[in-house]
């Protein structure tokens, strides 16, 4: 007879995602994982293959349900700099208020976790970085076409810089930075890219 699972694997994975997101893989013991998921060790290993594989699956779930939709929205918005401002405003709101306040971004947290050199985890993190950079690049390219960017702004360099700014927002919010200070930093950074700032400077 086939093995019949008496639990919902996706529900268990969601609980594991929350655990790893809030505390990181290194600090989440296998006992903490079994408590969070409600699975005993044998069920955990039989379903996911161990803590490493569960962590990878949780990271992929986070990408699919949280990171990818935000990137897709930014890619499809079509407003240029206003879309980037709204992206950061929503990011700061999510990081500083609500259920997940102070958790940061699971993917950014993973960059500093002990397992970040694992080849599969490294590939996932690098792919997320590329996708976010490409989304920023697309929005900046629209901004250039609509005359929103200051002359001389490199779209490629600015896109990379905005990704690093997003990382900084995630790290600082996890360490207790307030929403107003983060938003002020984002506003000042985007102001440096804008055509209005260049006109005022001239």
From TrEMBL:
Keyword Ribosomal protein (UniProt): no
Name of a matching Pfam family: TetR_N
Gene3D superfamilies listed in its UniProt record: Homeodomain-like, Tetracycline Repressor, domain 2
DNA-binding region: 29-48
Residue ranges constituting the HTH tetR-type domain according to the UniProt record: 6-66
SUPFAM superfamilies hit by this protein: Homeodomain-like, Tetracyclin repressor-like, C-terminal domain
Entry superkingdom: Bacteria
Alphabetical list of InterPro entries matching this protein: Homeodomain-like_sf, HTH_TetR, Tet_transcr_reg_TetR-rel_C_sf, TetR_C
UniProt keywords, alphabetically: DNA-binding, Transcription, Transcription regulation
Protein name: TetR family transcriptional regulator
Lineage: Bacteria, Bacillati, Actinomycetota, Actinomycetes, Kitasatosporales
């Amino acid at each position: 007879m086939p093995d019949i699972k008496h639990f919902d694997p996706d529900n268990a994975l969601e609980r594991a995602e929350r655990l790893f997101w809030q505390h990181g893989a290194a600090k989440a013991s296998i006992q903490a994982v079994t408590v969070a998921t409600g699975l005993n060790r044998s069920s955990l290993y039989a379903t996911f293959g161990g803590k490493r594989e569960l962590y990878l699956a949780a990271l992929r779930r986070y990408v699919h349900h949280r990171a990818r939709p935000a990137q897709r929205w930014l890619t499809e918005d079509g407003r240029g700099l206003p879309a980037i401002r709204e992206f950061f405003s929503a990011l700061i709101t999510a990081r500083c208020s609500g259920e997940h306040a102070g958790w940061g971004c699971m993917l950014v947290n993973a960059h500093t976790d002990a397992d970040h050199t694992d080849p599969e985890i490294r590939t996932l993190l690098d792919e997320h970085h590329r996708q976010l950079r490409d989304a920023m690049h697309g929005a900046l390219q629209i901004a250039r076409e609509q005359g929103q960017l200051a002359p001389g702004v490199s779209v490629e360099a600015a896109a990379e810089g905005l990704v690093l700014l997003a990382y900084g927002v995630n790290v600082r919010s996890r360490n207790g930075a307030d929403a107003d200070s983060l938003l002020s930093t984002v506003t000042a950074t985007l102001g440096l890219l804008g055509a209005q700032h260049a006109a005022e400077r001239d």
